[in-house]
């Protein structure tokens, strides 16, 4: 047995070319067998479906991406039925994971989004699944990823598709998948198991409002609906990509908040008590008074943000004690002005959530204002002007304690509240709440005081004043847009409230004294004192 093997070994040793030829023939034969089995399975699949078309292509759409287009309520074009050639290059696993099917790479524009539902950013942990899951739970039909970290949802695609090579950025949270590119969306169609599951998310009741003077301009899309119901009107306006659904008897109107229809003057709900034809327990308004709901469509009129076109030497501080709503105020200012805000510090979690000015040095001059919690003469005099945010110390201290031990939108544990951490925290931070305000009032060159509670109570008026203070023209459309999405990504749910009062009588005596000190300081500068809810009970 050994002798024949030795002869073979000597043969290939003398003839190395023959050895490699043998290996090549072996690999070729294996490849042919594999390809044959693949063609067989493709044929059986096609035969089972009764059609040779790709399952991603709709009945009316063409595989070239030139499917039928329809005009939407915004004057855009519906490219929902178009499909990218690049999708054919994806594997079945990539295209269909049971939750979504990959559609292709599409153009996106900050002024006119391809997907006009809600959006969110995460510049550190964005994944395809996270985006799909977020859009699906809100009832959207499409999920799109852009720039590796941005997620957009929508009910239809309103932009043309482009080459797959333009969606070439890896997801920040998973390097194995692509998440669009600069102004390019990788779009997935979310697969819903039943037609009945195609809901549009929960609409928010806004109230009863008087019919606008020019309803056609105020609410540009409308239709008469048989057996009118809230769901039917909300669904229609959601499909047309409007954020407001207004019911007027058997007629449904859709639009956005504008100076013609601000939603600021609510009427008595009894004026809208007309039963819907399609549901017994809901009111559908009438020709003179509309029942208004906010849909899940995101109003994109205030979503574009950028750095200042020219560097500014005029530095404006957004100053506050920690826990007084600084991050929330930054969110509002960015939406209202269209410019990024900066920070005296660097917080990676804020940058990852879309505050792109976080990375800039606070003296860069590229941001509209700069967040700071600093106090002391030297730090304050470095700024040319300041917006000073003040919040009820009882609320601010608890908010900062939650942030310190639970993160920006988390909560401190019961062990922290009942342990030594809370008393020590109040002892150190409560005096700082007062000294911070007193220092800015004393050393600030030009100070606009904004109370958190006032901003929350009348956002439109106070935010308008802040924009004017920053030296910018006011866009009422942007301000009304901000009102519709004022919470941002840093609002605690409020579901985990303490079952007891964490403040002892001794703590309250100290804090009440500090409130009186701040109130007196404000009044000495001819400013309104602290709001009534601050004052000792």
Shape summary: globular
Please report which band the strand proportion falls in: under 5%, 5-15%, 15-25%, 25-35%, 35-45% or over 45%.
Answer: 15-25%
**Largest beta sheet: what is the strand line-up?**
2-4-3-8-1-5
CATH top level class name of the largest domain? Alpha Beta
Tally of DSSP helical segments: 16
Q: Roughly how much helix do the residues carry, as a percent range?
A: 25-40%
Largest sheet: 6 strands, antiparallel
Family: Belongs to the WSCD family.
Biased composition (Low complexity): 43-52
Domain WSC: 99-191, 202-296
Biased composition (Gly residues): 62-76
Describe this structure as you would to a colleague.
The protein is an alpha+beta fold. It has three domains: 85-196; 201-298, no CATH class; 303-534, 3-Layer(aba) Sandwich (Rossmann fold), CATH 3.40.50.300. Helices cover 34% and strands 17% of the residues. The protein has a six-stranded antiparallel beta sheet with strand order 2-4-3-8-1-5, covered by helices on one side. Helix 7 packs across helix 14 (459-469), helix 7 (326-337) crosses helix 15 (476-484) and helix 12 (421-443) packs parallel to helix 16.
């Amino acid at each position: 047995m050994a002798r024949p093997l030795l002869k073979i070994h000597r043969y290939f040793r003398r003839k190395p070319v023959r050895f490699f030829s043998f290996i090549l023939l072996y690999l070729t034969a294996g490849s042919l067998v594999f390809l044959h089995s693949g063609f067989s399975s493709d044929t059986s699949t096609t035969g089972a479906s009764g059609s040779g078309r790709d399952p991603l292509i709709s009945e009316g759409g063409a595989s070239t991406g030139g499917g039928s287009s329809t005009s939407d309520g915004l004057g855009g074009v519906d490219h929902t039925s178009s499909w990218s050639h690049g999708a054919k290059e994806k594997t079945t696993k990539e295209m269909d994971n049971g939750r979504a099917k990959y559609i292709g790479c599409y153009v996106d524009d900050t002024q006119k989004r391809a997907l006009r539902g809600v959006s969110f950013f995460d510049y550190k942990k964005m994944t395809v699944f996270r985006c799909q899951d977020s859009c699906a739970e809100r009832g959207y039909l499409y999920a799109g990823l852009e720039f590796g970290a941005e997620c957009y949802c929508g009910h239809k695609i309103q932009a043309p598709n482009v080459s797959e090579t333009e969606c070439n950025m890896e997801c920040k949270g998973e390097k194995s998948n692509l998440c669009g590119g600069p102004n390019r969306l990788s779009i997935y169609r979310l697969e819903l198991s039943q037609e009945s599951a195609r809901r549009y998310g929960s609409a928010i009741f806004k109230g009863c409002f008087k019919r606008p003077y020019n309803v056609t301009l105020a609410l540009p899309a409308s239709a008469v609906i048989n057996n009118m119901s809230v769901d039917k009107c909300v669904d229609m306006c959601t499909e047309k990509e409007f954020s407001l659904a207004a019911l007027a008897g058997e007629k449904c109107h859709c639009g956005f908040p504008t100076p013609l229809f601000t939603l600021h003057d609510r009427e008595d709900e009894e004026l809208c008590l007309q039963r819907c034809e399609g549901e017994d327990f809901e009111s559908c308004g009438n020709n003179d008074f509309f029942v208004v709901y906010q849909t899940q469509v995101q109003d994109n009129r205030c979503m574009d943000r950028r750095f200042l076109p020219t560097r500014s030497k005029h530095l404006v501080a957004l100053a506050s004690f920690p826990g007084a709503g600084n991050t929330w105020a930054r969110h509002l200012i960015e939406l209202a002005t269209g410019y990024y805000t900066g920070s005296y510090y660097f917080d990676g979690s804020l940058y990852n959530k879309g505050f792109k000015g976080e990375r800039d040095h606070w003296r860069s001059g590229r941001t509209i204002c700069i967040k700071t919690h600093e106090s002391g003469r030297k730090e304050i005099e470095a700024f040319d002007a300041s917006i000073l945010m003040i919040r009820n110390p009882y609320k601010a201290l608890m908010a900062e304690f939650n942030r310190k031990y639970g993160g920006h939108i988390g909560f401190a544990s019961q062990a922290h509240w009942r342990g030594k951490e809370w008393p020590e925290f109040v002892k150190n931070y409560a005096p700082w709440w007062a000294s911070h305000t007193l220092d800015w009032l004393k050393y600030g060159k030009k100070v606009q005081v904004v109370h958190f509670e006032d901003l929350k109570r009348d956002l439109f008026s106070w935010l308008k004043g802040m924009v004017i203070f920053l030296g910018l023209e006011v866009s009422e459309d942007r301000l009304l847009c901000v009102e519709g999405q004022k919470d941002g990504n840093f609002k605690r749910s409020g579901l985990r409230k303490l079952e007891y009062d964490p403040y002892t009588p001794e703590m309250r005596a100290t804090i009440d004294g500090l409130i009186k000190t701040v109130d007196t300081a404000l009044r000495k500068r001819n400013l309104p004192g602290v709001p009534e809810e601050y004052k000792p009970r």
